[in-house]
Amino acid sequence: MTRWILKCTACGEERIFEAAFNLRLFGGKMYLYCRKCKANREHLILGCEEGGEECLSAGVDVID
Predict the structure, then answer these.
(1) Hey, what's the torsion of the CAs at 44, 47, 50, 51, to 10 degrees?
(2) 27 and 54 in contact (C-beta within 8 Å)?
């Protein structure tokens, strides 16, 4: 699991989101429920918490 840092574009609250896939494939933004706004809001994908190698790769991990 990779721990990603996300930031709500509405209120600015940052959160950690654990995912088993590369969030960079979403183009830098994704919609999640914000606990502070109490609604689904757009979040910016700031990067990995670890800053490891899986954070740097932007390629697709699935073979077509």
Answers:
(1) -170
(2) no
**What is this structure's pTM?**
0.76
* C-alpha to C-alpha distance for 32 and 62, rounded to whole angstroms: 23
- Please state the φ and ψ torsions of residue 47, each to the nearest 5 degrees: 145, -170
For 16-58, the pLDDT digits (tens) are 999 988 888 888 999 999 999 999 999 999 999 876 555 655 5
What is the distance, to the nearest Å, from the Cα of residue 51 to the centroid of all Cα atoms in its chain? Answer: 13
Cα(9)–Cα(60) distance, rounded to whole angstroms?
26
Residue 26's SS3 state is helix
